[in-house]
Design a protein that fits this description.
The protein contains six helices and five strands; from the N terminus they run ββααβββαααα. By secondary structure, the protein is of the alpha+beta class. It starts with a strand and ends in a 6-residue tail after the last helix.
Length: 160
């Protein structure tokens, strides 16, 4: 079985295919951006993108996502390898503090903005309800996502 993570193909053993994706990413691939939070898929800290859809890595097995495109925060960046405009917006708006929720929040926002490039603040708020943050109070996160939406409105999806 093969697993594509951040553009790199990995051969997965039978035993690894039964692992939760979060554990595989952290323990086998040493990609520690996705965090273990609640362990039941409701806090958003383990969020990764699977074919540009948000998935809870703690609830998804490796076998379930074989032959799909998985992106973790380590593989999320601008075409030139620098910070993606969404990541820069999080920095610019003070939407990161401890950083525990940030990877999942950024990936969730990206998946949302791909589908809704011109969102209202209420839709942004609703889109991130599955991602818990204890530091920022959410306003800075909503501000960052709203600011980054301009990028998604002006750049073709194939370049995002």
């Amino acid at each position: 079985m093969k697993l594509t993570v951040n553009g790199k193909v990995h051969q997965v053993t039978e035993e690894q295919s039964r692992m939760k994706l979060l554990r595989y990413l952290r323990e086998v691939l040493n990609l520690t951006g996705a965090k273990k939070g609640c362990g039941i898929g409701i806090c958003g800290t383990c969020s990764v993108l699977v074919d540009n859809e948000v998935k809870a890595g703690c609830q998804t097995t490796v076998a379930e996502v074989a032959y799909k495109e998985i992106v973790t925060i380590e593989g999320f960046h601008a075409k030139d390898g620098g910070l993606h405009p969404l990541q820069q917006a999080f920095i610019d708006h003070g939407a990161i503090q401890c950083g525990f929720c940030t990877p999942g929040m950024v990936l969730t926002a990206h998946a949302f903005l791909l589908k809704h490039p011109n969102p209202t603040r209420e839709k942004i708020r609703s889109a991130i309800t599955g991602n818990l943050c204890r530091c920022t109070g959410y306003q800075q996160i909503i501000d960052a996502i709203e600011a980054a939406a301009v990028y998604y409105q002006n750049v073709p999806i194939s370049e995002q």
